[in-house]
Amino acid sequence: xxxxxxxxxxxxxxxxxxxxxxxxxxxxxxxxxxxxxxxxxxxxxxxxxxxxxxxxxxxxxxxxxxxxxxxxxxxxxxxxxxxxxxxxxxxxxxxxxxxxxxxxxxxxxxxxxxxxxxxxxxxxxxxxxxxxxxxxxxxxxxxxxxxxxxxxxxxxxxxxxxxxxxxxxxxxxxxxxxxxxxxxxxxxxxxxxxxxxxxxxxxxxxxxxxxxxxxxxxxxxxxxxxxxxxxxxxxxxxxxxxxxxxxxxxxxxxxxxxxxxxxxxxxxxxxxxxxxxxxxxxxxxxxxxxxxxxxxxxxxxxxxxxxxxxxxxxxxxxxxxxxxxxxxxxxxxxxxxxxxxxxxxxxxxxxxxxxxxxxxxxxxx
Length: 365
Description:
- By secondary structure, the chain is an alpha+beta fold.
- The protein folds into 2 domains: 21-135, Jelly Rolls (Sandwich), CATH 2.60.120.260; 143-364, Rossmann fold.
- Helices cover 19% and strands 25% of the residues.
- The radius of gyration is 21 Å and the shape is globular.
- It starts with 20 loop residues before the first strand and ends in a 10-residue tail after the last helix.
């Protein structure tokens, strides 16, 4: 079996060693986009949220993609379901994904590791050999999940070596967040709406009890970093929403008032219901925070279930002591891949029990 590598360097408009190429524009119908993407310029598809991914199948011995970035983002590439090296994009770049691949049908997945604060990415198209051809993507996951969260959901520091190591964009790998781990266990496509430091009503380090822009105010955005354009919720509907917020509200003083926090969280849940209908919503707390956030969220969920009779709203508490400080924490005391898998293993049975979904345990071991 051939080994595959990613070579991330600036090239001319053609593949190295190939005199003629076939260019596949970004709006080709056989390219699959999962996440919040901006198609207003069909041949330059832009995005910035963590965990957005692009998939396509083709028959060609060689393959490259054209991308650009307003900042500096990192990506994982998978070729024929096998992970390859990560690459970064910080300008208008042509990236060779494979040389001498063989002429059988191949599959590519390009996965955004880093969050919106690192810049806006643009996918411009694919370069194949002159006789190469696109093939329809056939493997559509069974389920759809949306995750709303903060740095933990972003995968902040998942590749950090120790808890005392400070975060860098290169150690943020959303693919190792509990959210994608959960989605893969359930064979689900997913959207991730998450931003480090954001809270329900108050962001990390804010001197005020209520922040001007918090995570719920980002919920309707196409881009994490831009108020406009707004997202068309009719384009993609999840079967379930998982929320993990509150850590930043109570990480530093001054804490928000209990009533303001609960009301802000209630408003977010009601907005989810408004956009998606009466679908299940799982409200997670932890593992980087406990009280008073733990009790506030549980009480708020109990009110939904018992007072408003919305039995499809669920509380899941993830205890701080689930993490082994020496083994499960990466940059700045955030869960690393080991810790994120423990989180996923804690949450998955709750979702499965209430929705009747089957799941795989391979990645949880």
